[in-house]
Amino acid sequence: MAAFTSRMRKAALALGLLATFAAVSSAHASDMTVDWPAWNAASPPIFPGETWQRYASPEEAGWSSASLDAAMEAGSQLGGDALFVVYNGAVLAEWGQTARRMNVHSVRKSLMSALYGIAVGEGKIDLSASVGALGIDEITPLTETEKSATVADLLESRSGIYLPAAYESRSMKRGRPERGSHAPGSFWYYNNWDFNALGTIYNQQTGSDLFRDFETRLAQPTGMQDFSLRHTFYRGDPDVSHHPAYLYRLTARDMARFGLLFLNEGRWRDSQLIPADWVAESTRAHVQRERGGGYGYMWWTFARRLKELGTYAALGNRGQTIIVVPAARLVLVHKANTADGHRVETGDIVEVLVAILKARTGPPAATPKLVPAVQPVIPGATVELGPEQQSRFTGAYKGRRATIHVVETKDGLEIADPRLGQFRLLAQSDTRFLIEDLEREAVFTANDAGEVTGVSVENRRGGWTDLERVRN
Description:
With about 475 residues, the chain is α+β, with helices and mostly antiparallel strands. Helices cover about 30% and strands about 25% of the residues. The chain has three domains: about 130 residues, no CATH class; about 210 residues, DD-peptidase/beta-lactamase superfamily (Beta-lactamase, 3-Layer(aba) Sandwich); about 80 residues, Lipocalin (Beta Barrel), CATH 2.40.128. The protein has an eight-stranded antiparallel sheet, with helices on both faces. A hairpin with a 2-residue loop joins strand 17 and strand 18.
């Protein structure tokens, strides 16, 4: 009840701030029907280097400081963890833990869509190929009708294959249509089976690995400063499906680079990383949804007030968001740390976006003044452990719900959790560590002989989970 009351207070405060914003901004723009093309025409695209640049003031970019501050304050009260707003390639405003990696949840699907655009452009994947022709099957064998679903059907989430999938939410399981109830290509249902099978197809048809390709084809060329392959992992359910989910932990500021790449139609400086026609095709509505908006190739589109600005989004559970507004040259990224139980509704984020758009007052300065963006302090190790000290901790640790593994890598000790992925252990003493990204403590215990016997891991409810070492 206390947590619910706290959320209600935050929501009420946010609504109050948005009302205040409306009063402040009414003198500047009563709606979003401003002349966006004319206001943006004089500003060539900006690209971040190793780090982002930001506008010295919102006015340099053509925004009202007072109105933008009110909108950002409203966003900060929704219960999320980071909000990062980019106009034309430089930071317009930011709030929260923009350099903390968090699970992107279903934003992963739009990341995969970009990889498909590259592979299709290179002739490695045929969108008209059927899953049957590609040899894709399942623990519960597919019917001949199901095998006729094409790669394009899967990208649109219209395969008609209604089987259990890895990493499904309860709502997906509850809402799954009856098997055989819809022919491939005829009905839209948000289906993790489709999305996961696309990962299998990608790896099979390209002869590569989707995470490595994301690193070399997208993360490195766009300069994602916080990304490493250890922030990705497959999560399967071999009793349910042959096709694992592919999960990412990304920071808000790296997600904004991905959004900026799409804002520039797949181009980063002088390199066309994703075919421009794929960017256009994947982000248009292939499916019109009953409740408004549409769905493309694993991208969401909007209705009503945002449709005219060409807005589309990568959306993940509980507030993971990359929204691209082409007409306004704007990218908005929102993050909520679900590992800590945080949740924000997409509709609330959209309201903040609308408030930000309404804070636009005119064209940017002819040569807008840019300054280095804020570089957050990222927690790290406070002591160094030698190889012999590190090897004391390697092995398997069994708890009530899972067995985790501590391993040595070139980057030091890492802890691997089958549910959450792999994280660095940042030494704070010879027995106490900080778990990277989760920012929770892990404290190892030892017997009188100095042999490590277990580890206690801090959990998000403020308690500790004890695990016993079962082998080296």
